[in-house]
Design brief:
single chain, Rossmann fold, five-stranded mixed β-barrel, 10 strands, 37% helix, 29% strand, globular, binds ligand OS5
Length: 230
């Protein structure tokens, strides 16, 4: 099976490339795509660069040009839920775009006509992840992930996102990747490990925990790949 794995930042895919070891590279549309085999699957791996636009480009190329049959996103997030501590893993049940606002026309926050506020991640991949978590002996939290083109470092903004979307974590790419995959009909999964709690200390915590949290997410994603049916 052809499986796409993407992150937003180089740090989010580096642990994956280190583990798979040997790969070929192909440059296209401003990204480097790393191709290899792992766990009996063909993988295409890339980091998109930060934000909704760059991540949508990368996901689209993975679906259209590389023929990805499933897409897995691995990376870090800001925690909203008080249950989520730095290093904890959260998988998206659904994703939304917290920065979409056409409320002037009577629409709810996050809604675009002919779309929906929430896009649900693939149920089979979420079930597989739950099994992997049990077998690895790690806690895996499931919740709503809110995406926007903002690094959130404010308790006020974080609180607004929580109350408006019932979001448990936030980041800058998952909602756009979900939108791309949903429209291409490609099952997708978004996993994030908490790097900060999106408040006043977020910038410092993010710098401190980016690498360690990215590795936690990457390790889990590769365990999922090994368990995916052929
Ligand atoms: O990809 C962005 C979203 N990620 C998840 C995340 C997050 N999102 C929103 N709010 C929060 N509190 C979040 N916590 C975790 C992480 C990432 C955040 S943007 C970080 C930008 C850091 C940076 N800027 N310049 N560099 C790093 C150096 C650099 C230089 C050249 C090339 C690349 C990077």
């Amino acid at each position: 099976m052809k499986i796409a794995i993407m992150g937003a930042m180089r740090e989010e895919i580096d642990p994956i490339l280190e583990t798979v070891g040997t790969y070929t590279t192909l440059e296209h549309a401003g990204n480097i795509f790393y191709e290899c085999t792992y766990g009996g699957h063909e993988l295409v791996i890339a980091y998109s660069k930060i934000g909704k636009v760059f991540s949508a480009i990368t996901a689209s190329v993975m679906c259209e040009r590389f023929g990805a049959e499933k897409l897995l996103f691995s990376g870090v997030a800001g925690g909203i839920s008080k249950e989520l501590k730095i290093g904890d893993l959260v998988m998206a049940s659904s994703l939304c775009q917290h920065d979409v606002d056409i409320t002037a026309f009577g629409h709810p926050y996050g809604f675009i006509p002919e779309g929906s506020v929430m896009i649900e991640a693939d149920q089979e991949l979420r079930s597989l992840a739950a099994e992997v978590a049990v077998d690895m002996g790690v806690d895996l939290y499931e919740g709503i992930i809110a995406t926007g083109d903002q690094f959130v470092a404010s308790s006020e903004r974080k609180g607004w996102i929580e109350s408006t979307f019932q979001a448990d974590a936030l980041e800058m790419e998952g909602g756009s990747v979900a939108c791309v995959c949903h429209n291409f009909g490609v099952p997708f999964f978004v996993l994030r490990s908490i790097s900060d709690t999106a408040d006043g200390d977020a910038g410092i915590d993010f710098d401190t925990f980016l690498q360690s949290s990215a590795k936690i997410s990457a390790t889990f994603i590769l365990e999922m790949v090994k368990r995916l049916g052929h």
